Every structure is written in structure tokens, then in C-alpha cells.
């Protein structure tokens, strides 16, 4: 049985939301799955990703093959790097404490770089907004101008 780690689509039309699941490769996309590993919401900025690292790592060790998108997600969350480090431990290149130290260092650097990117994104979005659009100062300011501009109806006696 070929086991894949893939996305299972949920959500309404044009509003996708995905679960990251482990499933038999022959089962339908939204069909039966073996285990749910997390979720992925591409509509938020930045995309929201929730992954159980330990479960994903166990399935990778068992031989589950991630699809391209799930591979990118696992790489972003550090699961593939952790698998790489644990492979080095099993080959005797370094001990598990050194591997965990490397992973925590990578994780902190990754989080700080992600926060910088998020901040730059917010700044560029704020800078790209047109500056000529001004908000009215209040509802009373809008109301006071409206009667002056409205045409006055003349009443005729006939």
C-alpha cells in the first residue's frame, strides 16, 4: 500500500481550507484517510499552517511520501530539517542533544526572519495605499454640507 501525505480540501466554493492528511494513494482526494496531521488555510495573510511535527516525522520515517505542496509546508515548518538531523544522529555523526540544539537555533532564526518578512509586507501594503483618499472628519461634517448643495424646490400656487 502506497501511503501519501497530502492536502484534503474543505471549505466552500472559492474559499478553500485544507487538512494535511496521511492517506492511501488510491483513495479519493477528499475521501478516506488514515490520520490527520494538521491544517492549512491559504486565504489568510500570511497563510495559516498548523502541523503536528511528531506525527509528521513518524510518518516520514515509516515511508509516507509527501506531495509537492505538503513537502513545501513541511519544509517551512522544519519537519524535513528535523528528519535530516535525526538521520545524522542515526549515522553517528553527532548526538541527539547537538541535533536538537541545531534545530532550536534554526527555528529561532526562521521565526525572526518570518516576523521581518511579515513586518515588511505590512509596511509595503500601508505605503501602497493611495494617500489622496481622506476620511471625513465625522458624520456631522457630511450632513452639514448636504443641505446646502441640495436644490430647493419651489412651491407654486397653481
Automatic annotation (TrEMBL):
- A GO molecular function for this record? structural constituent of ribosome
Ranges for region Disordered: 109-158
Key words, A-Z: Ribonucleoprotein, Ribosomal protein
Keyword Lipoprotein on entry: no
What domain of life is recorded for the organism?
Bacteria
Bias (Basic and acidic residues): 109-118, 134-152
User: Is this entry keyworded Ribosomal protein?
Assistant: yes
Show the GO cellular component annotation of the record: cytoplasm; small ribosomal subunit
GO BP of this protein: translation
Q: Which InterPro entries match?
A: Ribosomal_bS16, Ribosomal_bS16_dom_sf
Indicate the family of this protein. Belongs to the bacterial ribosomal protein bS16 family.
Q: Which NCBIfam families match?
A: S16 (TIGR00002)
Which HAMAP family would you find in this protein's record?
Ribosomal_bS16
For this entry, the protein name equals: Small ribosomal subunit protein bS16
Please tell me the species this chain comes from.
Hanamia caeni
Amino acid at each position: 500500500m502506497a501511503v501519501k501525505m497530502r492536502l484534503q480540501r474543505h471549505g466552500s466554493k472559492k474559499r478553500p481550507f485544507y487538512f494535511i492528511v496521511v492517506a492511501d494513494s488510491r483513495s479519493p482526494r477528499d475521501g478516506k484517510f488514515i490520520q490527520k496531521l494538521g491544517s492549512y488555510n491559504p486565504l489568510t495573510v500570511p497563510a495559516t499552517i498548523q502541523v503536528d511535527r511528531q506525527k509528521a516525522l513518524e510518518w516520514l520515517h515509516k515511508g509516507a511520501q509527501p506531495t509537492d505542496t505538503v513537502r513545501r509546508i513541511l519544509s517551512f515548518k522544519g519537519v524535513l530539517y528535523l528528519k535530516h538531523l535525526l538521520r545524522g544522529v542515526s549515522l553517528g555523526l553527532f548526538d541527539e542533544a547537538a541535533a536538537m540544539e541545531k534545530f532550536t537555533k534554526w527555528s529561532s532564526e526562521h521565526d525572526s526572519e518570518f516576523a521581518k518578512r511579515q513586518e515588511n509586507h505590512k509596511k509595503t501594503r500601508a505605503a501602497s495605499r493611495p494617500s489622496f483618499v481622506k476620511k471625513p472628519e465625522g458624520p456631522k461634517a457630511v450632513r452639514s454640507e448636504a443641505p446646502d448643495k441640495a436644490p430647493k424646490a419651489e412651491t407654486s400656487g397653481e
